């Protein structure tokens, strides 16, 4: 069985920021264009990767936030007060606390500073330290671990998952008729998974995706609440449905799948409906 060691190191802060970006992508448009623009979205169409599109998106945003944080660090905020010595102060940056909590080896700021040829500490030195930190394997390991915690929280939010997949689908839709996209498809041999209008072809849903979605949706139709466990009725058949339909440029991604009963799935057909926001409570009140 697979477990996540949840450290909850500002996990909800990062989840909240990422939710804000998904709900209002216009405020983050330039950054999104850097990964999705010029047909960059085609880098994300491989079907049902375990490192889902949401994982990649979360890690991109966390990386951006780390850089933004280091570009604004003040010396007074980085004094290591646990080892305070007025004559010989030590400094520790916020990201180092995250490294330590996850137990990931890293280059500390004080190690970097002692190896440098600088004499007087200035705030620009935190940016210089960050530029060296990002070259180390541990930096991306921390982003991956923190990203997994944020994914665990956001994967429960079907409404947010719909909005997230709508962002992806809008960029994929823009590829239709784009010469650069056409060349990208040929160079990367993407024809087997794409239709000529750049809609993704239907593929069989892996068992690990079904299992993840089944347990997230607690074995019940997300529309009508019908039990699909097979314990109450063998007639109720589970259907794994694309939240944003493939017909509307939806993706074959674990974040774009929900559990429906046969009847609700038939009513939806290839059209999109608002994701359900009703969830079973943990206990009766």
TrEMBL record:
Q: Its domain of life?
A: Bacteria
Q: Which Pfam families match?
A: HNH
SMART domains on file: HNHc
* InterPro entries noted in UniProt: HNH (IPR002711), HNH_nuc (IPR003615)
Domain HNH nuclease, chain residue ranges per copy: 208-266
- Name listed for the protein in its UniProt record: HNH nuclease domain-containing protein
What species is given as this protein's source? Paenibacillus xylanexedens
